Amino acid sequence: MYIDKKLFSEQVILQQQEMKNKQAALTILANELQRKNVVNAEFLPAILKREEKYPTGLALEGGLGVAIPHTDPDKVEKEQLGFISLKEPVKFRQMGDIDSYVNVSMIFILCLKSPDKQLNMLKSLMTMFTDTVTMKEIQNSTTRAEFLAIVN
Predict the structure, then answer these.
(1) Whether residue 1 has pLDDT greater than 70
(2) Residues 6 or more apart from 68 whose CB is under 8 A from it?
(3) DSSP bridge pairs for 70
(4) Nearest in space to 56 (alpha carbons), one of 132, 126, 135, 131
(5) End-to-end CA, the chain
(6) For the PTS EIIA type-2 domain, which residue ranges apply (predicted)?
(7) What is the pLDDT of residue 100?
(8) Which of 125, 133, 130 has the alpha carbon at shortest distance from 108?
(9) Which whole-number Å values give the CA distances from 140 to 32, 64, 69, 97, 105, in the listed order?
(10) Per-residue pLDDT tens for 119-129?
(11) To the nearest whole percent, how much of the chain has pLDDT over 70?
């Protein structure tokens, strides 16, 4: 098991979306989280600002790219993860190297209240990200049930 299914209880799982850029992808995901009362109105501006200073794009084996944006716990009302897969990748800056870019086709947005939980979640995600078969299955999933079965 990679991720506790409870962290997807609000089912903010958007698949095979067409987005022009990372801002559009993050906006639709954050708006859906806010609509479900997972985050407050400060979440989206905070995530966009943090992404500029501390990018979260990661290049994975198999030509896949993911991003794991997150921000301060005071913007979170309920612990949750959000997910979006994209039909065509969008550019994110590379984590740890703001001068490099990654073509991201999957975004896992973290809405966690505790730094300890955030660290543990990042570890779980990083473990999952090293499993190329699982990541390709996630990228190709088309239903929420299929996505949840894969990550669980």
Answers:
(1) no
(2) 56, 58, 107, 108, 109, 110, 122, 125
(3) 110
(4) 126
(5) 5
(6) 6-152
(7) 94
(8) 125
(9) 21, 12, 21, 28, 10
(10) 788 888 999 99
(11) 99
Amino acid at 64: L
CATH superfamily of 5-151: Mannitol-specific EII; Chain A (3.40.930.10)
Residue 22: closest CA among 1, 42, 52, 2: 52
* Residue of 65 and 112 predicted with greater confidence: 65
Beta bridge partners of 13: 83
Q: 108: which 2 tokens?
A: 């896992």
d(CA 24, CA 33): 14
Amino acid at 6: K
Confirm if 152 and 146 have CB atoms less than 8 A apart.
no
* Cα 138 versus chain centre, distance: 12
Please name every residue paired with 127 in a beta bridge, in sequence order, or none if there are none.
none
